[in-house]
Every structure is written in C-alpha cells, then in structure tokens.
Design goal:
Rossmann fold; 194 residues; six-stranded parallel beta sheet; 9 helices; globular; alpha/beta
C-alpha cells in the first residue's frame, strides 16, 4: 500500500459509471449523499485543472445516461467519455485504458458505481500495473453493505488506498490558504451546509 501524498499535479480522476440507472441500484449509501460526494469530488478536481476520464456502460439500457451535472462540470470530458458496450473492467476497454494513459498521471483517484463491480476491477488492474490508487468509497456505493465490504477488503489487500471524499479533498488541497484552497473552502461551505 502506498503512503505517498496525492497531489493535483500528479493525479488524475477516473469516474466510472455514475449513471442515473446504475446509481438507483445502490443501497449501501443514500443516493443523494453518494451523488453529492461524486459531484464535490468532480468540482474540486476542476478547480485544480486535473485530468478527468469519464466512462459509462450501456447507457441505452437500464444503466441510463451519466449524471447531467457531470456534463456541466466537464463538458469536454463528458463529450469524450468512453462508452463501454458491456465490458465490466473498464481497464479491459482499450479506449478507456488509452484515455487513462493519455492523462500522463501516475496517481489515480477512482470513484465508481457500483463499488463491488464497476470500481473494484479497474482499481485492481491499475494497482497491479504499479499505479498508486485511491478509491473514494463514499462517491460510489453497492447494492448492499456486504458488497461494499467485500470490494473494499479485496482492494485493500491489493494495495489500493481507501478514502472518503472529504479526506481526499483535504489531501489534494494541502493548504486551505492557497487561491485554489480558498475556492475549495467556499465550495465545501456551499455543498455541506445545504
């Protein structure tokens, strides 16, 4: 397990399958909390200008489209999102793997829906390839708490660092008094007090 500090200039964000249909299958965390955390993470990463890769699976079926807010936050990444045709492990999709490589970043932050299917397999693949990986556990969820727990155990055993939204944001910021840090403080105040 890597203890290195994640920094905005070294990290990229991978958001996997934050689709309206798939998110409705999650019962390990309240829907609104999961959505708030994913969007808070996205908005923080935007403040730092970090690379983002978005992917979805089978949008035209029950999984549905990605959250429309992601298009507002990342219009270019949304337009370039990798639409997988059913490949479970996003890293097994050549287009997604190429997009991750194209970020040029070693440190990878992952959040996905669901943790027990969409997140676990790419996290394992990226850790096996030598990337420092942090999975933001509360920016995703699973149909059951057991599903989350099994995925978390498996990822931790493989060297993936588990974190939550606030902890990851604080790690990226490092200093609240910087211009970016001040913007994130304002964002947190808006989102967490509403």
């Amino acid at each position: 397990m890597s203890n290195e500090k994640f920094q905005p200039e070294q990290a990229a964000l991978l958001l996997i399958d934050h689709q309206v249909g798939t998110m409705s299958w999650v019962h390990s965390i309240p829907f609104e909390e999961m959505k708030r955390n994913a969007l808070l993470l996205a908005r923080t990463v935007k403040i730092y200008g970090m690379p983002v890769v978005l992917t979805s699976s089978m949008e035209e079926y029950a999984q549905g489209p990605l959250l429309p807010e992601l298009e507002e936050i990342f219009p270019e990444a949304f337009a370039a999102r990798i639409k997988r045709a059913g490949i479970v492990n996003a890293m097994d999709d050549a287009n997604f793997a190429a997009a991750v490589k194209a970020t040029g970043r070693r440190q990878l932050i992952l959040a996905g829906v669901t943790n027990d299917v969409c997140t676990v397999f790419p996290a394992l693949s990226l850790a096996a390839a030598g990337h420092p990986v942090q999975v933001v556990a509360d920016a995703g969820g699973s149909p059951s708490r057991t599903g989350d727990e099994m995925a978390f155990r498996r990822m931790e055993r493989a060297g993936v660092t588990l974190t939550n939204t606030n902890q990851l944001i604080a790690e990226l910021v490092g200093n609240w008094s910087t211009p970016e840090g001040s913007q994130v403080v304002q964002l947190l105040a808006e989102v967490l007090q509403s």
